[in-house]
Amino acid sequence: MVKPETHTRSASDNVAHVSILGATGSVGISTLKGIEEHAGRFDVTALTANNNVDLLYEQCLKFRPEVAVVANEKRVDQFSARFSGNGYKPDIFAGSHGLEQAASLDEVDFVMAAIVGAAGLPATLAAARTGKRILLANKEALVMSGSLLMDMASQHAARLLPIDSEHNAVFQCLSGGSEREVERIILTASGGPFLKLPLKEFAGVTPEQACAHPNWEMGRKISVDSATMMNKGLEVIEACMLFGKDPSDIEVVIHPQSIIHSLVAYVDGSMLAHLAYPDMRVPIAHALAWPQRIHSGVDGIDLAKLGPLEFTAPDQNRFPCLRLAYQALEYSGSAAVILNAANEVAVESFLKAEIGFTEIPVVVDAALQHVEHENMQELEMILTKDQQTRLFAKRFIEQTGLRH
Ligand code: NDP
Ligand code: MG
């Protein structure tokens, strides 16, 4: 279980060397902003991207990492050529192996795991195997690997700090009592852009509408996940893993204002909540500085100007993906891998306008019903199940005429 016991920084770790996996994404960019604000405290050792070599190049010139990784091997030469005639050039690595190298460099203290999707799993495991502080944004990696990542982190004294705002909130609220005094964990959910959309209009939702989240600016995949509430489903699984809880100990409540990021209920009837404006710089600053606190660049809440905070139970008809995630937890074994892989394929197809919004849960449900569930103990098995499910989901979309 991830628990906030106290820890003091030693004199030797005054400067923390950070590797940012997924530097060109929404979380990666916010992390670099945080580091820039505290330049003497953090040093950027490695940056990684997949396709966006233009931004990676700019980031390299600004932060001067020793290592840069381009995961998409086809773009490496283009990236490397940018440095000709330049005094500075980082060591450039490529592909999945390059990501693992960036996560496990000897000189790296902190790894920000901010790649989206299953692609981030091997590098996140490499960070755990080499005992890094892992700032975990890449929830899909934890959903897929479950106890494998948790066990590896604990075996190698790697400290996992949640970046997902809900889990970071829970982590902070857990310091209010002991493990056995926790009665339940309550994850808040904004409900996304379609909280009040009439159900009959769901089928016609476009990718642009789904990506226009009312409170958060995020990458496209997580934005769609928020609109279907699969994001909250993945987060329920994430919370079970991080905090060692059963699904029945995790409650989800809709809170459209996204001010309370989650709560912990204790046996005495107390509830501790974490409040902040919805800005990822807050959890990122928390995890970068933990157990200390630093300025995040985000103002504290002006309570008098806030207006009412609302809470309602989620509507399962509106958000079948949330129910599917609880179902995957009930099945256990490889079900979370299947859920995640089918969802990644379905979301990608939706973003390309190949399938409709309401077909995302149809694909995930079919995969959960038809792909064989097995016990998963090793990375190889997880990656094989992931691939098998992706094939199933792609074929299902083709063969059932879901593809427009
Ligand atoms: P983005 O889509 O904005 O960024 C994704 C990053 O991952 C980019 O750097 C991208 O590189 C890289 N990437 C994508 N595919 C691959 C691949 N196959 N191999 C290697 N790198 C790859 O995502 P977000 O920043 O929004 O989200 C990142 C993670 O954090 C997700 O797991 C998400 O669920 C989680 N998260 C995000 C939050 C947010 O506010 N954004 C909040 C809570 C959690 P490139 O740009 O070069 O293509
Ligand atoms: Mg979240």
Task: Indicate the structural class.
Answer: alpha/beta
Shape category: globular
Intertermini distance: 44 Å
Number of helices: 16
Q: If you compute it from the alpha carbons, what radius of gyration comes out, rounded to the nearest whole angstrom?
A: 21 Å
How do the strands line up in the largest sheet?
Answer: 4-3-2-1-5-6-7
Structural topology:
Layout: E1 16-21, H1 26-37, E2 42-49, H2 53-63, E3 67-70, H3 76-81, E4 91-94, H4 95-104, E5 110-113, H5 121-129, E6 133-136, H6 139-145, H7 147-155, E7 159-162, H8 165-173, E8 182-189, H9 207-211, H10 220-228, H11 230-243, E9 250-254, E10 260-266, E11 271-275, H12 281-289, H13 320-331, H14 335-351, H15 359-370, H16 379-399
Parallel strand pairs: 1-2, 1-5, 2-3, 3-4, 5-6, 6-7, 8-9
Antiparallel strand pairs: 8-10, 10-11
Helix pairs in contact: 4-5, 5-7, 6-11, 6-14, 10-14, 11-13, 13-14, 13-15, 14-15, 14-16, 15-16
The protein binds NADPH dihydro-nicotinamide-adenine-dinucleotide phosphate and magnesium ion.
